[in-house]
Amino acid sequence: MDDKSKETPVLRKTFENELQQLKDEILLLGSMVEQSILESVEALKKRDIPAAERILELDKKVNAKRYAIENQVMIVIATQQPMAHDLRLLASIMEINGELERMGDYAKGIATINIRMGEQALLKPLIDIPRMAQKGVDMLHRALTAFINEDVEAARLIPAEDDEVDALYNQVYRELITLIIQDPTSIERANWLLWAAHNLERVADRVTNICERTIFIATGKIKDIRSSDDEAQKLKNSP
Amino acid sequence: MNGPSIQKPEIEFTDNIRDRNRYGRLWVYIFRFSTIIGIIALATLLFNIINQSSGYVVYEAKGDPAALTLDGVPIEEQTKDQLMRVLSSHLSKGAYSKLDRTKPFAERSRNDVYDLVVERIVKYEVVDSWLLWDSLTRKDEITAAVEEEYPEALLRFDVWINSDFLRRPQSSNPVIAGVRTAVLGSLWTIGITILFAFPLGVMAAIYLTEYAGDSWANRIIQTNINNLAGVPSIIYGILGLAIFVRALEPLTSGTLFGVTDPTSANGRTILSAGLTLGLLVLPLIIINAQEAIRAVPNSLRHAGYGLGATKWQTVWSHVLPNAIPGILTGTILAISRAIGETAPLVVIGASTVIYFDPEGPFSKFTTLPIQIYQWTSRPQDEFRFLAAAAILVLLALLLTLNAVAVLLRNRYSRRY
Amino acid sequence: MTHTIEKIKTQRIKVSEKLVYVLETKKLNIYYDDFRAISEVNMKIERNKVTAIIGPSGCGKSTLLRSFNRMNELVQGSRISGEVLFHGQNLYAPDVDPVEVRHRIGMVFQKPNPFPKSIYENIAWGARVHGFKGNMDELVEYSLRQAALWEEVKDILDHSGLALSGGQQQRLCIARALAVQPEVILMDEPASALDPISTLHIEDLIRELSNHYTILIVTHNMQQAARVSDFTAFFNMNGDRSGYLVEYDNTNQLFTMPKNKLTEDYITGRFG
Hints:
The structure holds 3 protein chains of 3 kinds. Chain A is mainly alpha-helical.
């Protein structure tokens, strides 16, 4: 402090390292979730039951990771007394951690649907649902990158893409309703797919939450970027 | 991220623990040696004084005490009336009535009369004396020598410092010379010194530390006070002579108050001496009191001010009570110095030989150090023994003063 | 407790009720000889709130605190420019007596500094100095109760104040300050010399006292400022600039979302 050197010395190296480590863990958890979403949809598409069972295993790991991160955040808060930005970052890590775990649950939901469907064949070949998964995972990936870099601009832009997922969902919804009207006996099989699509739609919603957190870290302001889905809330009866 | 890595240079230590320990021990020896030298010096001093303060003394009476036996009673056991009869029969009428005029016999005690008999008729004189050390180690030799040389004489082991010594006034005969005049003179002088210098010094110290700012003038005053503490005491004597004895003579001689007869009065009084010694110790008291006041933690002052107390309230209630032990210690040191001072008193004219007690601040006087000085300059050995005894009295006086001050200090500092 | 004290208190509150701000500085500069320790500070202190002053060592926060009851005058060579207003009255106006200022604006110091007298005397002295005419026993009890010390010392009032533990001593000092009925209490790192438990006692006490008193506290400990204060002022200094006010805000706001980068760096411990 007496020394007026131009470069700011890095203070609290241990703390910085701990924060960095937590961010890395979040990225790791994110990639695990991304993998389970993509694979769960892939397994559904191929009606691959063993693959679906592997997703259930993967979800256990996701849950374990989530608790590990949560625990680590607690330790850092207790030992480092974070303030201001650090505190917001840790609170956000806690929040995002939960969001990712919930996304993992959606993937698990799709895998469960797959298993429950048993010998039944798909009502129709999957086209839009894999697209929803692809889009959702893509959003998630970029949202996590924005979070790591605290890139507010990117974080502000991503939630708008939720519309695309919503549009795909609506398309799937209409398509399935049409099929049900044509053949009321297909209602159960249509319902399976509707649930899967709904799960993927929720993934995209939760990506929005991650982006909100990223903006909060940088600005300290928390607000709903898109007050979305009241109707989706009603439909939330996924397994 | 962690900056450039640091190259560790070659680091080697020599194994020097033994050398370092040895070096440390060497110093301890030197310190111990210095302490021992001091102790030896002190012990020598004490031995010397004590050695001279008692020992065998050979007395020879000019008159024969046996001849004074009255009604078969030796003078040692006679009553006052018998002693008076002895006196009147051996002294001329004029000498006897002169004694009565100085102090009527009716007022004299039996012991006074006995002293008179010894002084005027028996007239013991010291013919030889030995030091304490010799008296203890060569007792037989001494007894033999005395029997051979002075068959008539009285050999006695005398402690020079005894109740008679303290009780008796100065005398030209060492056998009956005492230290009372000098002790009283010292006490009077020191009393006046304390009354004068203590309040003045403490008040000046309070002003200088608590009130005076850090101005140019104050710094000069401060420097001067510090320097005054180192001025040789004789210079204070000259100052006292000029101011108190000469310039303020009407005051110091007591004529101003009609206490003394203007014709015989002069300023060479206890008051002059006390004030001179007061001037001498004033800088010491001021400096010590300042130190004590400065040593009071500032946090106490701040606590006082923080409550909205005025400066005076804070000083009076907190600074002074906490400084008192230190102030007293400093004052003791200063007074101890004053009580042993000789030079300034000689300059302002303390009497070296004085046979009557000082009666007040306007009396002529002598003090213990002057008495000691005067006795040591006498040719007879016996006066040197008296001087040694007087030194012991002076030491005792100092120790008493210190003890009183320590008691006072403990009383104040134990309050909380 | 006593009628007199209650009366004094209610009167006081009435006087100040109109004003939300008890203290205010206007373009305050404090100098030590040629060195400027505080520059151009404008801040308002809200009534019956705890305001914390934080900042790195040497930023002049203690100096600022002491200027509120003119204790800085005790340092040789210190002078100020600008104004410190207490209920709108400039404390540094020529007709204002610093003794009166310190009566209305009390102070608690970093190191507990009870007088080397009995606990009772510690409390009573200040009141007596100001010519207190009421029941001293009641005042002592009231002050000690306010400082949450009564239960611990009620049986040892004649013991030395110095015989208490550090935390108790500091509460005694707070009780002592309360006994002269100030409106504002300045606290200069009141817990920095205490153990953690005593520190928490003092912090609780500060929160409690803020119901009746305006409290200004200087602290090195950011968590402490965060815990006890309603408002926090962050001061900084650098090579070219002496102690200046960087940010002054609601404590909740300042510790979660400071507006200034320097504040952020300071409270997150990345002060370069």
